[in-house]
Amino acid sequence: MTQDLGRRLPLLPVGDIVILQSGAHYTQVHRDTDELDVEAVSNHHLPAHQQLSAAQQEQLAAAGWTRPAPPATYNWWIRQPAPFSTRDGLRLAERMVAALRDVYGIVSPDTLVEQTDNILD
Question: Where in the numbering of this chain does the TY-Chap N-terminal domain appear (predicted)?
C-alpha cells in the first residue's frame, strides 16, 4: 500500500484528496496547485475515548508532523511544496502509514479504507 500510494501522490490532479481511514483514525493528502497538504487526525476530531495521549502527540511531532494550530488548522500537518518527485511521494506515504500504525495503533492494513475524491468536481 505504501509504495503504491507513494508513486501516486506526485501524480494527483489538483483538487484530489486521498484518505486512509480506520474508524475515527485517518491520514489524508490534498493536492493543491502548488503543494501536497498531508494531515493526520488530531484530538479536535477524535471522540473522547480515542483521544491521543501526550506521548502519542510527541511521537507525531518527532516524526516531523507540525502541531495543530486552530483556527488555521485543526489537524497535524505536513506541507510538500511543488515540484513533487516520486521520492517525495514515498516519504509522505511512509509518514501517513507510520502515523496510522505507530501512533493510532492500526495493526493491519486490511482494516484501512482508502477513499479518493476531487473537491473541484
Answer: 2-112
Q: Give pLDDT tens digits for 71-118.
A: 999 999 999 999 999 999 999 999 999 999 999 999 887 888 999 988
Q: How many structural domains are present in the chain? A: 1
Is the distance from CB of 29 to CB of 12 less than 8 angstroms?
yes
Residue 119 resides in a domain? no
| Owning domain of residue 19 | 1-114
pTM of the model: 0.93
